[in-house]
User: What shape does this take?
Amino acid sequence: MNKISQRLYHSTRSALPKALKTVAWLLKIILPIGLAVSLLQYWGIIEQLAALLTPVFSLIGLPGESAVVFISSVLLNIYAAIAVIATLPLGMREITILALMCLISHNIPVETAIQKKTGSSAVNMLLLRLATSFVAAAVLNILLPEHLGAGQAVQKSIELDSVAAVLVNWLLGAGWLILKITLIVTGLMVLQNILKEFKIIDILAKAFAP
Assistant: This one.
């Protein structure tokens, strides 16, 4: 094994433990939330919430059930929002708008508490972030093409007639999600280690330095 191959091998090997820990941490958040949302859908709670919030969210090009994604992001974090998105029949356009909203308003309880310690008004920061989320979503709703991603497959809502069927459907989806997350996270970790090993990150840092 030549020197370059050895360095690639060690970079890959050292990335795997970190990747698996990261995957496990993500799945601890995503899987329970995904199951909870699936059960809420089965019991009709998501549908009731959607009917209640559709008038508001339709103004920014979103269906009412997308409110669950935004609320999850506000109260928890981005990963919670991802877990909810994976269970709802949303298209690329809706997901793009939601992604922007969630990036602006996520983990509000924790981040607002931190901001309060720095002297900022918790109420003002909360209102600012929520208002900015909706304003940004409204602007993006105007700018994005109406049929963005129309040719792509969108997850369809499946009618399930029992809790057991919900659990089976969730397990199948969870298995596919675990595979995707594992491949993506591992690939990124390996790439990062390789870039570090061959000093490419240092080169990029110098190239993009002010």
